[in-house]
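>> Question from a student workshop board

For tomorrow's exercise we were told to take the sequence and the ligand below, predict the bound structure, and bring the output to class. My setup keeps failing. Could a helper post the expected result so I can at least see what it should look like? The ligand is D-serine.
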Amino acid sequence: MEWLENLKQTDPELYDSIQKELERQRTGLEMIPSENFTSPAVMEAMGSILTNKYSEGYPGKRYYGGNQFIDVVERLAQERAKKLFNVPHANVQPYSGSPANFAVYVALCKAGDTIMGQELTHGGHLTHGWKTSATGMFFNSVQYHVKQDGYIDIDEVRKLAHENKPKIIWVGSTAYSREFPFEEFSKIADEVGAYLVADIAHISGLVIAGAHASPTPYVHIITTTTHKTLRGPRGAMIMVTQKGLDKDPELADKIDKAIFPGLQGGPHDHQTAGIAVALLEASKPSFKNYGHQIVKNSRALAEELKSNGLKLVTNGTDNHMILIDLTPFGKGKGVFVQDALDEAGITLNKNTIPNDPSSPFYPSGVRLGTPALTTRGMLEDEMKIIGKLISQVINEVKNYELPGDKDERIKYLKKFREEIKNNLVLKYVRKQVEELCGRFPLYPASSI
Ligand code: DSN
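>> Workshop helper replied:
Here is what the output should look like for this input. Compare the format with yours to find the bug.
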């Protein structure tokens, strides 16, 4: 039977959109660093009859009947996570990364308690205490920054920690291209008696592969999404380390209670099954190669971008991600670069850079990465080609200037988006992109 045949019959309109999205993924270069292509096996688990079940509680302690097989599924996911990250406890039920992080607050804090995280505009995540997130509204949030060179300002972290005595310190962020200094954070957290929580959403696949240091010996809690470098379904996990249990023997129980009944209802059992499959895949030797290749590709791409005259935050990368600082061309250029690359078949995202002279909606940088391209089998040689193509596109649009006036800006962007449709360089890049994608087929018909 053809892939999605039942859906095609039942809802042709929706089916059509999925087919178009599949074609978009197949024929373009997916370079948003938080995205990836999960396997057909993971998608089968996600599309399975497990979506039919309610199973509030945990294996062996459910509120509803009929959970004997769900218990097996959830235990598989828990055990695989524990083994891969070398931790004594794993909760695999969080619906996604933001609820997972919020559960950590629910487990450890009362409203108004002080917490510390990396500021959003300096690469941190919303849920690490940014003012528009519930984590910044309900807690007294102290934010640390990166230095002028783009690296985390560990002296500031120590100073703020000693001044403010936070309950939680977050390490790990969403737009940071260097190795996280877990050991130094751990010393600071211990000095002030804080819980140290590593949010490794972006790098969990690299940690498993040994392509990034593991936080396990240094932190009390680890949170991660499961769909980024880990290449699983959308979802998340919270893990408690031995160091965490040594600090607080009740910690695992507190985390479990924060997820259910604290924040969530029934776990998404199909998602748990997808996570279990992804963790099994990540335990294979080929995943180690995958993780290391992501970083090699990222470094090769960074070098190519630099040799084409582009400026990178921290001047390079240690992980899967690169931040291009577009301020040498002016402020607020991220939107032009994102849209022009989209037109040329290369998807990345506009992003603030540290001390951005513009606003988060019209930032002065773009963020890109190599996890999805590496899943397609692309290597350093392809990164060099891609680096040149990206540089050509940036060169085409770098002189567009964003008007300060809001109405003018909307009109200007509309005109810009019309103009780039006819840009010959972008058309040429689009052709190169399609040719490249054709050499690295994604989800061939025989696999889905
Ligand atoms: N939205 C994710 C990312 O792109 O990094 C973080 O939540």
